[in-house]
Design goal:
2 copies of one chain form a homodimer.
Chain A: H1 5-8, E1 12-16, H2 25-35, E2 41-45, E3 51-52, E4 55-56, E5 68-73, H3 77-89, E6 92-97, H4 107-123, E7 126-128, E8 134-137, E9 142-145, E10 163-170, H5 173-187, E11 191-196, H6 205-213, E12 220-225, H7 234-243, E13 248-252, H8 257-267, H9 274-284, E14 287-288, H10 292-304, E15 313-317, H11 320-332, H12 342-348, E16 362-363, H13 367-370, H14 382-392, E17 398-403, H15 409-412, H16 415-424, E18 429-433, H17 439-447, E19 452-453, H18 456-475, H19 477-483, H20 503-512, E20 520-523, H21 526-536, E21 540-545, E22 558-562, H22 565-582, E23 590-595, E24 601-610, E25 614-621, H23 624-627, E26 632-636, H24 641-650, H25 655-658, H26 668-684, E27 689-699, E28 706-708, E29 711-715
Parallel strand pairs in A: 1-2, 1-5, 5-6, 6-7, 10-11, 10-12, 12-13, 13-14, 15-16, 15-17, 17-18, 18-19
Antiparallel strand pairs in A: 3-4, 8-9, 8-11, 20-23, 21-22, 21-23, 24-25, 24-27, 25-26, 27-28, 27-29
Helix pairs in contact in A: 3-4, 5-10, 6-7, 10-18, 11-18, 21-22, 24-26
Chain lengths: 721, 721
């Protein structure tokens, strides 16, 4: 783990080519540092001016006496290498490289970028960028950036950067700093810092996230990503964040064709597989958001509110109609809006007029805003009275207030009582306004630790994400799942090679590791096939075996339900002839003779190797469920039995495993155990296996287990076709 | 159709119990009228004061000389009837009844409300309310309401009501007026009027919508609904709106258990079936929204922008990262972000720097905001230059600008050129800002006819809804679908009665109307069963026939694949015994002997009668698709063949009909024709049929038709169980 303290809290900053022209990029950076009253030592390097903004300059970085914590470089791409080498030899610890013209501009730029990486490795001077918009340490008020969001002289007062617990790490400088502005105006968010990671020649997003996890001033981390430079590090960084109870809220761009094309064009980033990122985020407890509004909503909620223990929401409303809308939004999102118990309703009736309602939503009606309250000293207002009853109701996990906050009057009268109420509250309490909230209302809410949301859907979604995070923490997220793996008996050493296996070889390998397969034998000629069928007994299936014919069913390479010896013999000959017709050069191992399995519910289980996150398991109901309905669940390995069960429950068609329409319940336990066993097997074999496909697996009735009907295993060491 | 002109444009208003105390409800209404300088005659009725706010009062409404267009009533519920009768006999044309204490307060209140309805019917005086927050004719600046949104002395300048083309009809007064405020602040929306419909004792939501469709100042209608009083009127009103090109954007509340409970509790409204409303909205071309943000977004887009002709979006961005995010959002929403053709890219390259991009998204980079433009007189700026190229590109149907509008500088420089560009544009052009937009930016955009959106997801969703509306208009919405029905040959008169039919009777009825069913005969004893089987030939199915055993398969009342006479005989006896065991009093008609159908893809087609919208057809793939995956499509009758095909295409599993995994393509044409025929049959029978279930229907390969394997028909005239 890199210590980035000197980068963000520099005791000295050197600027190469300093300028006093605030319309230039370098001039602006300097201007912002002076504007914010930077307290460390400022070294200005200039060959043109002896003095800039009242500070004496030096001619080269080598003339600087004393330590250089951070050097700022914004020179032409082709000059960057020389400048950075000079800075490194002058002893600079960190360089922030704003220059563009690197990987985002093609092959020559990529070579230049690789050189920057080498300089960092060779000299130990760590580099942020190139093509970065810089950073802003808000806690320390150190702006090292040219973006106008950092310009205190520009923009509205509400958009100005304020201190607080939210940090932003962004691969897009424009988006990262814009998100600060949006969060400040919409939710009054305060920040600890914002970092634009640029092209990440050296320091990468996860270095910054890791630093922020250890930063006492940061409680929520927003991560805007196109692609991780080192995806393999995500697990450890995320586990550390989870251990600290600091949620990472991530947006991943470049998910679609057009998005990926754009990411490649502006930052030369290949955006990886969205399935892989999605599985990794879920597994590592990272909250993935849909859009920037949701990101700000979650930042507000997580930085201000306790987490919910469950999904039961109490709604208090000043408008019947708006209460209905909120109740709909919560239930449609999977939250509960339960009827309140009699004691609670009775307690509420002291505060709710006859034309209101004490069921849930609790309709206190517009009287709350029309009638002045607190006229009698010490009297509890209907609003705070109602809230207190809901706070004490054990049947509720969260409270939502629906009110028209288009002016500040409603809340102003209640401020002191509300603040006292909020300070003692142990449940999330979110405020929603159906009109546009006034600035006074918003600032009042923020000042007492509440957040206000502008849509019913966003309230429901925020509560759901808080609940998801709360459950992830309770489950121990990533760390726990691995610990729960049931380690099997002693296993043989991984095979030396795998290559491209036929079904019979794949099954044989699986049997070596304790998997149970149907009884089956390879027949190399018709007589062997007949003998095998007789030894197995009953009807058998025959399947052609050749590494070149992996999709046997599609190729008509499977014949089912053969019993009589002459039919087995004829089938053998037919399959061999077929194989030769399909591929004259195919390496035909023979025909697999297999017992006919009792019918079961068809599932498919697969493992593929994601280029970023390594092996991932997929499970789905067989046939159309996977291919037409795309009803599959993914998880990164390891997949323990509890994780496997959770995957199965995510399937839309899960009810089929539970048994519907007179069908029996299936052996879900055995299925989950098979998935765990497969996970262990693939991990045991290390990098050797690139793909496994158990398809179909028959899942029998409860207690009757599962059967691997067909299996395919591809080694990472197979010959390219 | 009611003429509501005098209600909204009253030449005289009488207020019962007028008050000069602006802290009371009646005082506020008067205050707002005076505040807005109401130009008509104001009659104040008061027994306490000879003069109020400088106007001489009268003692009773009968003393008023001249016409009374609108009388305002806000008295205690138990006094309302007498007051309204007096107003009616004084010749008032309309009453706005603010009083509460009616259906929302239980049975006694409901009786009072029914009395109000009678007064309207008997006297011809039309009533808005009771329990209404009133209306605000914004075009005419006539506020007849007590809601503070109408109070010009309160709230921020941005939230004030402005004139414009958007109208709001809301069953919730709180929500309706709050939506105006939200729309004004977020999108600078101007309004023609806002109506709170209250409990709708007399005038109902659709009366107001109908009025607004005919109102020249209204171009977009927002409808906030819990339940329609007369759902049957929706079709005609919606068709008139579509003919006028005026979109109706509707939110329907009370969709969930908690939501419906709340709607019942605050306005005594039963919220109907959400499936029915959803089907009705779709069929009648009404755009349904998710939340209030989407409602305002659509109001802004529809009131300002031309409609798109297709789904191809061109994105121009000043931030690479934000462009990636927008491209993702568009593609995830089903829009296309196509690569631009060579000529367009070449034309763009004049405006895009080397580190930008001319593919789509077009990245003009932050230079647009940093470098001053127009320094050279008459030179086209990169922003407007790029936009003009995209506007001329035939491969794009809409343009989205992504920019950081946290201050107004970027756009201010370009205002004149942008305005000229927008005035000539024939495609939608939506603006998105990744930071929070400044007021100056927003007002500049609004002043030149553009709207600004705060999330990528909302931009994509808005474009999608505009496209959907554009396509609905092109398809002729509701009117067209009925016209395209293929009227069949002459049909027998509808049956006199239906009751509860057994399968064989249902099929016989269907055959009368030209439906083709498998060969089948009812057998009343075992010998008849054997004879029937022999006459049909081959294997047959036997099915128990009793109106009390409608779910034969679940009851084991079906036996398949019987050929030998003794097996048919045994099966007959077994089924009869089973039926008697199941229900000793069952009316057992016998056993249906049916030819074994060739296997086909199983579908289910049903018709049920929605209490609000009448008969609705459901279609889905058989078995788990319906029961587990809930993969069904609904439409109101009539279902023509094109509508049927559209329903099938909405199914997630539609690919199964097209043929996947080596399965043949199915006879989709024959299936759609069957659906159309069923629609005609049910409509032909009028109200007589309450439910039809064709399940399964086997769909054979292309050209080989469909077969109704089982059928159930329930008459509306059946005995209740």
């Amino acid at each position: 783990m890199s210590d980035l303290t000197s980068l963000f809290w520099p005791s000295s900053i050197a600027m190469i080519g300093a300028s006093d022209d605030a319309s230039t990029l370098r001039g602006r950076i300097l201007d912002f540092l002076i504007q914010r009253n930077y307290q460390g030592k400022l070294h200005l390097v200039s060959t043109n001016h002896a003095q800039i903004r009242g500070i004496r300059t030096v001619g080269t970085v080598r003339e600087i006496i004393g330590t250089i914590d951070v050097v700022l470089v914004a020179v032409r791409a082709d000059l960057t290498e020389a400048v950075l080498r000079e800075c490194a030899s002058a002893g600079a610890k960190f360089a922030v490289c704003f220059s563009s013209g690197f990987a985002e501009e093609g092959d020559a730029g990529r070579v230049r970028q690789d050189t920057l990486a080498s300089i960092a490795r060779e000299t130990g001077m760590r580099i942020c960028g190139p093509n970065t918009a810089g950073y802003f340490n808000v806690t320390g008020m150190v702006p090292v950036t040219f973006t106008r969001s950092a310009d205190a002289s520009r923009g509205s007062p509400e958009g100005q950067v304020r201190r607080g617990p939210v940090a932003i790490v962004s691969q897009s400088g424009g988006l990262g700093f814009a998100l600060q502005h949006r969060g400040a105006v919409q939710h009054g968010l305060g920040f600890s810092g914002i970092v634009s990671t640029g092209n990440e020649a050296d320091l990468e997003s996860l270095d910054f996230v890791e630093h922020l996890v250890g930063d006492a001033d940061t409680r929520v981390i927003l991560l805007l990503l196109e692609a991780l430079k080192n995806p393999a590090r995500l697990r450890e960084v995320a586990a550390r964040a989870a251990a600290g109870g600091k949620p990472i809220i991530a947006a991943k761009f470049g998910r679609t064709t057009a998005g990926a094309r754009a990411a490649d064009s502006h930052a030369a980033r290949l955006t990886g597989s969205d399935t892989g990122y999605d599985a990794a985020f879920r597994r590592y407890g990272i909250l993935r958001v849909e859009d920037e509004e949701e990101m700000c909503d979650l930042a507000a909620a997580f930085s201000r509110s306790p987490l919910p223990a469950g999904n039961r929401v109490g709604i208090i409303t000043t408008s019947g109609g708006a209460g209905v809308w909120m109740a709909d939004a919560c239930e449609l999102a999977g939250l509960e809006v339960p009827l309140l118990d009699d004691a609670t309703q009775k307690a509420l009736s002291a505060f709710v007029p006859s034309y209101g309602s004490t069921v849930n939503p609790v309709d206190v009606t517009a009287q709350v805003s029309i009638n002045p309250v607190g006229a009698v000293e010490g009297q509890v207002s209907p609003l705070v009275g109602t809230l207190s009853v809901l706070a004490q109701c054990d049947g509720l996990d969260a409270i939502v207030l629906v009110a028209n906050l288009s002016d500040g009057d409603v809340l102003l009268r209640e401020k002191a009582a509300l603040a006292a109420f909020v300070s003692k509250l142990k449940k999330p309490f979110l405020v929603y306004t159906h009109a546009q909230a006034s600035r006074e209302s918003l600032e009042l809410l923020w000042s007492i630790g509440l957040s206000c949301f502008g849509s019913t859907r966003r309230v429901a979604r925020t509560l759901n994400m808080m609940l998801a995070y709360s459950r992830m923490l309770a489950d121990g997220v990533a760390a726990g799942t691995a610990a729960q793996m049931q380690r099997g008996e002693a296993r043989p050493a991984p095979p030396a090679k795998i290559g491209e296996l036929c079904e019979y070889q794949a099954k044989s390998l699986l049997r070596d590791y304790g998997f149970v397969t149907p009884r089956e034998m390879l027949a190399r000629n018709a007589s062997e096939a007949v003998a095998a069928a007789q030894s197995i007994g009953g009807a058998v299936a025959l399947k052609i075996q050749s590494p070149q014919i992996q999709h046997k069913t599609d190729a008509d390479g499977v014949m089912l339900g053969l019993a009589a010896p002459d039919r087995v013999r004829a089938a053998f000959d037919e399959l061999m002839a077929l194989a030769r017709r399909l591929d004259a050069n195919a390496d035909i191992h023979g025909v697999l003779v297999q017992e006919m399995a009792a019918p079961g519910l068809e599932m498919a289980i697969g493992v593929v190797r994601d280029p970023d996150f390594g092996p991932m398991m997929m499970v789905g109901l067989g046939g159309i469920h996977i291919e037409v309905l795309k009803d599959v669940a993914w998880e990164l390995l390891p997949v323990s039995k509890p994780v496997a069960l959770a995957m199965l429950k995510r399937l839309r068609g899960y009810a089929l495993l539970e048994g519907v329409r007179g069908q029996p319940a299936r052996d879900v336990d055995a299925l989950a155990e098979l998935m765990e066993k497969l996970s262990e097997f693939v991990e045991h074999c290390g990098d050797l296996i690139s793909e496994v496909d158990l398809n179909p697996v028959f899942v029998h009735e409860q207690g009757k287990g599962v059967q691997i009907i067909d299996a395919m295993i591809l080694g990472s060491d197979r010959e390219p076709r």
